[in-house]
Amino acid sequence: MLFDDTYTTIKQATEALFKDRGSKFLAFTYPITNEQEVKKYLDTLRGLHPKANHHCYAYRLGIDRSQFRVNDDGEPSGSAGRPILNVLLSKDVTNILVVVVRYFGGTLLGVPGLINAYKSATIEALTGAELIQKTLNDLYEISFDFEAMNDVMRVVKEFGLKISNQTYDNRCTLTIEVRKAILNQVLTKMEKIDSINTKYLLTN
After folding, report:
1. Overall average pLDDT of the 18-37 stretch
2. Which of 35, 51, 125, 157 has the highest local Cβ count within 10 Å?
3. Is domain 6-133 in CATH 3.40.50.720, yes or no?
4. How many CB atoms lie within 10 A of CB 183?
């Protein structure tokens, strides 16, 4: 295998509560596969907690460390989003969103106190999460003449590919999920089949 295409994420959403000097920090974790999901979860939490003072968050996507975002939502710069992200990086989990909703308790915590609170709330929420290993997969749509069906299915079987959608007619279409580490081998074999067209859809 040329590169590692496995990553660790959480199986399902979790939540936890951390308190400090009257302030409540509600931490929510969500498994995600794209940025659109981030907005959906944030909108939901803002609807559920309209009176909260802050909705701070961090998320990480993909298996390198370059795809992430942090948001302090009005807290002092670097005191909320970055501590949340640092926990994700130290635990090496990705495809995950963590939102910490803060209800201010009347006592200022100062930047060190805030960093500790957002970090602790995130750790609490992740402690309750079930971690799972997943592989990075590319989704491809392949179309071919019906006569090529046996050849195509032979490749699908050889590599244990998952078919997520299929239509069979004179011209057949399959949507297949291919693990990144074997992508080149699969495409090379597929493209040798007469009448086949392959189209990249997305990575998940």
Report:
1. 96
2. 125
3. no
4. 17
